[in-house]
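Recap for those who missed Tuesday's class. We walked through two folding examples back to back. For each one, the amino acid string is listed first and its predicted structure tokens come directly after. Nothing is annotated here on purpose, so try labeling regions yourself before you check the end of the notes.
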Amino acid sequence: MKKKKQQMLGNLEIAAFCDQLSMIVSAGIPIYEGISILQEDAPEEETAEILSVISNSLDHGSSFCDALRETNVFPKYVLDMIGIGELAGKLEEVLNALTGYYKREESIQNSIKNAVTYPLLMIAMMLAVILVLIAKVLPVFHQIYMELGSDLTGFAGAMMRFSDALNQYLFVIVIVLIAAAAGIFLISKSDAGQKFFKKRPLALSTAASRFANCMALALSSGLDTDQGLMLAEQLVDNPYMASRIKKCRDLTASGRGFAEAVLTSGIFSKIYTSMITIAFRTGSMDEVMHQISEEYEEETDRQIAGFISVLEPTLVIILSIFIGLILISFLLPLIGIMSSIG
């Protein structure tokens, strides 16, 4: 584990911590001894400091949950679940579930980053190639035409005038592009931008995966469906999915069965109807929720892969057409001039 001052641990750091503790608990070693073992083997000073705070708190009689709270580096969800695990006597199960949960959260976040970063890099590279071609390559052709006593007309002439303007106002254009990029970034972080993006199918699929993952963890830790829904509503960072979870809670409060409420509220697609109904009757809801979470995660990956598979050739085609038009418009007249000279 590695942390900065007062900064929450990352998903993989939490997963590694819970994984190590679950092995300690399963071996029958008391928590305070396990923390001491981890402290001795801590690879970094920051990690040792966190474990030292936990150890000192345990020595003063605090519960494990309260000891973790003293560090100020664990999210509320981890603290709540470990507190429940301690009270229910299922700490090992909770730690194992948290390990899987935060590993999947890291996988989901990486998928989202890839979905945003890769297209932006491709677009930036395409624009850079076009700008270099217009600003630096076209003037070379223009100089050749001038030496041959000819001038550019039509599309080539228009591109040359654009090249002159680009070179003349390059600094202003760069400032405008930076300002536009900053504006797009700020809009994406605003409430309106977040609402727009979180209503997209990819965001809803990600939120459904997180909901199923949270429910699987809650149910496997001994919580009932109402408690699981309450935790999931707080954890799912999507207002549209949160409203569906609230509707599900209202339906269960009015007497509807959990399976019917989940499906009626639209949290999952209808293909999972039979799975949830059978799971609710057989008492294997936690296992089915875990399976649904993995299937939604795979669906998210497929959507991202499909988006990139379409975007990449599209950008390449656009770039190729643009470069081809420029080269043809400049080279054909040049070939004609050279032929007449020959």
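Example two. Treat it independently of the first, because the proteins are unrelated.
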Amino acid sequence: MPQLHLTKVAFGCRDLDALRSRVAARSENTQLRVPTRMRPKRSAELVGGNLYWIVKHRVLGCNQILAFEDREDGRINIVCSAELEPVTPFPKRAHQGWRYFETDAAVTADESGVGELPPQLYGRLSALALV
């Protein structure tokens, strides 16, 4: 059975370095808490999966989902590992909130350096089917 994951837009991040900085700044005690309004209906299936970050219409990295916890203000925290793992970039449309994402095979780590390309250059190379 495929592992269930989430995708979420890293609003305001321009590249992988900006995403790394954001994750590092918001992490406490090796955990990252990502607030959301609603608990995913399939939250039990998501524990052990990953939260994939969309930056400029492509997925660049992920954090492992450890748990879901209720907040005092009625919202939910998605508790993730603070270690951001870069992945081989792949296109993904932006959306509001989070979306489920199923994979049969694990998304591999980005060793090619493609994730480091500026978003505009990546877009042009992708349109030419060069990446």
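Answers for example two:
Helices lie at 16-26, 43-46, 119-127.
The mean pLDDT is 86.
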